[in-house]
Amino acid sequence: MPDEIKEILFQQQRFQIMDIGVHHGRFTNAYLYAWEDLVYPFFEDTDGSILKRPHESFAEFFKVTREQVETLHNYFCDQWEGKTVPTFYELEEYFSSYDRGELIHICRYIYLQGHMFDEGFWEKLITPMQHPSEAASIIGDFDREKDIYFM
């Protein structure tokens, strides 16, 4: 299928996912956030034994890749196990190949999963004076009606 047609299908799928999530209460907040901010929804991948989820057919159109999400998640798991949670600035230094926006979006997506790390983990990541102001949004409330934009 030509790339242009596939990209059009991706945008149509994106709006459908967001519409169903916002107006019909379907999908998790993390999944909606991922589609809205174009973060590959890594944690919702299937193993191939069941029908693919919509995002799996469109991986190349997410601005933040599956590999980026997986890499940061694995890093967080290692830090969590070693009880050496970084501050955001430390994270930014370690992942210097990622831009700040990518890191914030991936962290927000992981945070919205809600079951991976405790509040102490996120408080350490967002230590006062150890993160840019925009990183505070990582642990902010999520409201489907206000946080999902149909653009």
What features would you describe in this structure?
The protein has 151 residues and is an all-alpha fold. The protein has one domain (3-147). 52% of the residues lie in helices and 0% in strands. The chain has 7 helices and no strands. It starts with a helix and ends with a helix.
Shape: globular
Question: What percent of residues adopt helix (DSSP H or I)?
Answer: 40-55%
Tally of structural domains: 1
Topology order in helix (H) and strand (E) letters: HHHHHHH
Per DSSP, what share of the residues sits in E-state strands of 2 or more residues? under 5%
Point out poorly predicted stretches: none
Q: Which structural category fits the helices and strands?
A: mainly alpha
Number of DSSP-assigned strands? 0
Determine the mean pLDDT: 91
Features:
mainly alpha, 151 residues, globular
Q: Which SSEs are present, and which pair or pack?
A:
Layout: H1 3-24, H2 29-37, H3 66-81, H4 88-94, H5 100-113, H6 119-125, H7 144-147
Helix pairs in contact: 1-2, 2-5, 3-5
In short, what is this structure?
This protein is mainly α and 151 residues long. The chain has helices at residues 3-24, 29-37, 66-81, 88-94, 100-113, 119-125, 144-147.
